[in-house]
Amino acid sequence: MSGRRIAMVGADALPSAARVHNALLGGARNYRSDRELARQLLALSPTLADRLCARRAFAGRAVRWMLVAGIRQVVDIGAGLPVPGDAHEIAADAAPDAHVLYIDNDPVVVAARLIHGSVSVHADVRNPRCLLRSAAVRGLDLQRPVGLLLTGVLDHIKDSYEVAQILNQLRTATPYGSVLVLSAYADNDEEKTREAVNLYRSRVGPLIGRARDEVASWFAGWELVAPGVSSPQSWRLQSPVPDAHPWEWAAAGLNLPPGHRVAEAGT
Ligand SMILES: C[S@@+](CC[C@H](N)C(=O)[O-])C[C@H]1O[C@@H](n2cnc3c(N)ncnc32)[C@H](O)[C@@H]1O
């Protein structure tokens, strides 16, 4: 097949969550259809790219925090396409002996990460036990604490109860000392944002906003760490950016033995 034919397939492909996200971040791993949708989304919601960058900054701080706390295995679930500031870059700086694994249900993401030289696994977060088994084949040691990073991925799961079940299964399948870090898109009734969300849903798939209490309830069994469920711009920053109407939630929890509360990891 000629390169020209491949280019046409790419240009004609339907937008995907990973490639649209990459286009919104200014990356080059996307097709014309992804860039066109990104352009329309930005027209409706001009701060969207900045907000995605703030989420990435939160994920970066959270990975550094878990590495400083002693975690040496990081599993980035719904990792998306490679972009600067990914978990393995933070690990190379903060804890070069740490093992970073990327997981996504989009084969394009998995292939791109493999080409990039990362350990990359094709799995679906909706089947956490199978996901962890696949990760174990690629070197994840389930006898040692794991840092689970789920940013921008749970938004694609419609049923909040299913999310709670997934997080509970991840907790019971990983040893004490493991850490969960997640972000969740916040319910937002601003009209332009609603239009952007509806456009995204019509072209890519589900994108679900959650209430703060709903996100807090997902941490049943996990020890939610300070500052609790907050905005990405205020999570563990010395000078948090006040935000009366967060567009997204950010939070982390520890998997601790029952009744065991410790001085907070990384402090
Ligand atoms: C918006 S991107 C987020 C990328 C990155 N985690 C971030 O926060 O910048 C969402 C990613 O989740 C992946 N994804 C969506 N549903 C998934 C599922 N059920 N299991 C695994 N990955 C999923 C998509 O393929 C995409 O790469």
UniProtKB/TrEMBL annotation:
Gene Ontology BP annotations: methylation
Its keywords, alphabetically, are: Methyltransferase, Transferase
Q: What is its EC number?
A: 2.1.1.-
Q: Report if keyword Methyltransferase is assigned.
A: yes
InterPro entries reported in the protein's UniProt record: SAM-dependent_MTases_sf, SAM_dep_MeTrfase_SAV2177_type
Under the GO molecular function aspect, what terms does this record hold?
methyltransferase activity
SUPFAM superfamilies in UniProt: S-adenosyl-L-methionine-dependent methyltransferases
Task: Tell me the Gene3D superfamilies matching this sequence.
Answer: Vaccinia Virus protein VP39 (3.40.50.150)
Which protein, by its recorded name, is this?
SAM-dependent methyltransferase
